[in-house]
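Pipeline run #58 for the internal structure catalog. This entry was flagged by the ingest filter as a single-chain record with no existing model, so it goes straight to prediction. Upstream metadata was stripped on purpose; only the residue string is passed forward. Reviewer on rotation: M.T. Logging verbosity set to normal.
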Amino acid sequence: MSAPAYAAQLPGQDQAAPVTPETYVRLACDPAACVVVRACAGAGKTWLLVARLARCLLDGYAPQDVLAITFTRKAAAEMQQRLLELLQHWNQLDDRALADELARRGLPRADAALLQRARALYPTVLAGGTQATVSTFHGWFAQLLRAAPLRFGIPLHFELIENEKPWVQQAWRRLFDKLQAEPEMRADYRALVARTGRSTAAQLMELVVQRRGEFMLAAQAGTLAQGLDAPEPESWPAWRTRNLAELRLWAQAWGACGGAHAREALLHLQAALDASDAQQVGALLRKVMLTAQGEPRSARNLATRAVQLEILRLGLEGDPVGRWDTLASDCLGVVQAHDALDIETIHAWALRLGAELLGCYEQFKAERGLLDFSDLELHARTLLADADVSAWVQTRLDRRYRQVLIDEFQDTNPVQWQALQAWLSAYAGDAQRPSVFIVGDDKQSIYRFRRADPQVFEAAASFLRQGFGAVLLSAQHTRRLSLAVLDWVNAVFAQAPTIAFIAHTTESRVQGHTALLPAPATEGEATAAATPAQFMETAPRVRDTLTEPDVDAEIDKVEHDAQRVAALLRELMQRPCVEDAHGRLRPARPGDVLLLLRKRKDRMDLYLRALLAAGIPAAAGDSEASLLDTIEAQDLLALLSVLVSPGGNLDLAQVLKSPIGGLVDDDLLALARCARETRQSWWQAAQTLAERDAAMPALRRFMTLAEGWMTLLGSLPPHDLLDRIVAEGQLRQRYAQAVPATMRAQSLAQIDAFVHLALDMDGGRFLTPYAFVRKLKRGLARAPLPELHVGAYPQANAAQQPSPDGDGDTWGGPAFPHDVVRLSTIHGAKGLEANIVILADADSRPAANGPSVLLHWPAEQTHPLHFSLQLSSKRLHPAQRRLVQAELDAAEREDWNLLYVAMTRARQQLWVTSLPMRGQAQWSQRLAVGAGATPAAVADAFPKLPDGAGQGAIEPQAPATSPTMPVEIPWLSRPQTAPAASPANPPQADMRATRIGIALHALLQSASATARPGAVIEALDAPGVALQLGLDAGEAQAAIHAALRIVRSPQASMYFDAAHIRWARNEVEVAWNAQAGGEPGWGHIDRLVELDDAVWVLDYKLAASSLQTEHYAPILARYAQACASLRPGKRVRVALIAGDGSVLEWQVPEAINAPRPESPRSA
């Protein structure tokens, strides 16, 4: 289907009409209009929302009048940040540039007064102390409930549960106690377990807790198990009696001349005729009349010609085959009626017991003042439906929202929409009603497992159009996709039967590239093509189970694909294949790449290991990843467990083998022997060995440290204790030297994140180390992985900068500190994009689900019209079959949506791999159209460069084995002593100079990551800097002046000018080994810059002199030595940069810059 790139349907119009991009933006950004925007991936939805936020402030709305909702806390924080950055950018522009910026946001004619107001927004917002509410639905609901009247029954100081599983386990314990006290309930539970099994019974009951919002609303409306009231079926003995004469005729005929199938049926029929138990009669008659699949048996084997003649002779009237088919169909009807009653009975047990489990869970929460996300939604729905109370709550919060903006509306669930609709409905006919702006994309609705329902978007659009006169806008023009990716997306989704896809257009002029790599030959295909000798070599043999591990064929295929992806990336990092803003081609960097998977389990670790083994820096991080799954967090948790409870042998073994303890296998074996021989715990044995065995210095070191940390358990909170452990145990140094270079940054970030977790939990208050360990082990803490990038997207080119308002596609300046390939599930990649996207193992599918909830809730209804539990896909009540088909249709639509999200993450290149599948390779078949023609091999899949395309291409900047940063520092294999301390400040330096010096470092580090560091520093205000850095105004002003002098100094400016810099890094951590001069050590280079002639090590000093260069000579020599292998053949130079802008170069010893043979790593 084709349609205009931009279209608008104004109030009173029956259909949308094409509009220009300028009109589209003008309508969307007008604060006076209610607007519903449907926009494709990469169309700038978030840019549009931030632009409207800024327009609201520009039109005089106070920050407290504005409510912006998005669906993750991270997205909310980024939105707030982008708004402030935009306002700050406006504050720095001249009149002409600012007028252009306002014109881009729907204000083509800006007068002087408007320009002045725009410039004043940034200081006004900062000085006002009140910001617009930018939050998630749950964050906003929690804010409302904390101010709700007591009569609503909401705990006054409630605590929000983010992980309900541990609390549900507590509810199970309470339910089991209840079962002991109530025989009738216990009988129901035993019956449910007997009919379904313990695991399925638990799943059915927990579904009620998981979907408690819909369950409660359906229970209130009386629509639970709607239609599952089957009539009492005919009993099996009654059916046998009704058909007894005919059954006996068939038995006699089969006995006289039946074949093998007939004789088998005869045995079951005779047993059924003789049986007295009704259930046994039914089971036997099923075997006679029906197949194993539950279909009526065919007369072909049971009513042969001889049997037909015999049964006619015995007195059967009519056609024997027809009579058999009628009898079997009649039996099937009774079977289905009994099955329906059976399902109804099981369903009633499950609902009743699930409601009891839910009651225990609710009681448990009420006793402890806990609320979960469903509670927030239900309470907010009730509160917002009461117009008077809603207005009172907003007044109490000093919020009377006049502008409501909601991002990613396709992810809204029905209960959230009911709460929002109830609130907005109260404004019917009110001239002071809020202006509403919602934006989303039905094609990106992929969170049904979180109860998101795309039909809510349609209902909201209809509600706002009818009640608020909303303008409906659509955009099918993307700024993201290259021409090749766009062609492939359009070709694939033109065939989608379940979504109304409109062909996209693109702003990008980059050609790009796409490829669908073929699945390797299956085992059967390889065997068929093998020669006899090859067949004998690969023939299956008996595995020695004692010496050879079992090999999972599926995992083996995934590992091979992971190696194929690693080989592909190594090739991309050597080819000029990524186009920069100037049209030049350069090799790919790790930060250009996003690797997507459909499944996390049994997949992501395999791909991550393959990339790291190939020397490609990579990090697995998305919304599903948890800090507590990382080895660093597990080691630290095990250490705390040992400290609070030394009897845990397994925890102690983990800590001792980790970099924290540093023991080797022989040490652990000796410890195990000692514990066994002395019949002591491992902790006691470790104390014994540490005292008597001088050959185990690592154990002695650890035990000394651990015993000291134990003495602090009663006096320090967890955060302070962990901070002490990390410092005294040299954990950052030890982990940095224990992990591969490509994992070093992530490992250190995860250590820091675990320490900060102790502050985030309960606000760091009233928390003991024991309680901290207990909460973590019980899963009561939410711990996302730390962010490695300074933003959501990887950089595209070192010469580019992100546009200040955040609508640019590229990031620039010096590359990010952590340039890694990102691995993510497709669900976790919403909002991400990359120059190169690799969709790996595209045909993998989630495992078949067990029991589930069947829900029918039209978006315009206030409650579900049906709520029931589906036992399995094969055990359905007749009333559930229509709903199951609707669920299958919805799942099919979401599967297409998931593919759309995956493909539209790619800016320039999209690569797809697949594996041999036993079933249907669904995505591969969809993708094998259009631009994604399947090549014969990986090598054939690379684009052929046209003549002259390689001219001006940027050469690879780093070896393929270390593409993350050009810096390769020699590290110790394992630290044995503490790093050497940096020289102390000269004794004459006072504390004021120290504070100014620290602020100077912070300002230069932040400003040098931008395109115009001078303008950034000049725009800073001293009070704001003072507040952020803990200075007085005079100290802040001195630091700003010093930073400005440095970046604008004729001597120092070249170190901050992107036009001269090949690459640069700030705050580079380095360590040196004993061969690099004296003791091993650790330090930070303030700024590391590569110019055309040399690599510069720069150190900032508030004041620098030749005397100071001598004072710092030892540390500067170590920095230079550590960086000598950075660029073989290029000199290393070192300089101190003073606060007055002067540059004092320290002469690097010639021995450091002496020519040396290239190492294999850098060759």
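catalog note: The chain is about 45% helix and 10% strand.
catalog note: The CA atoms of residues 640 and 1062 lie 45 Å apart.
status: ready for reviewer M.T.
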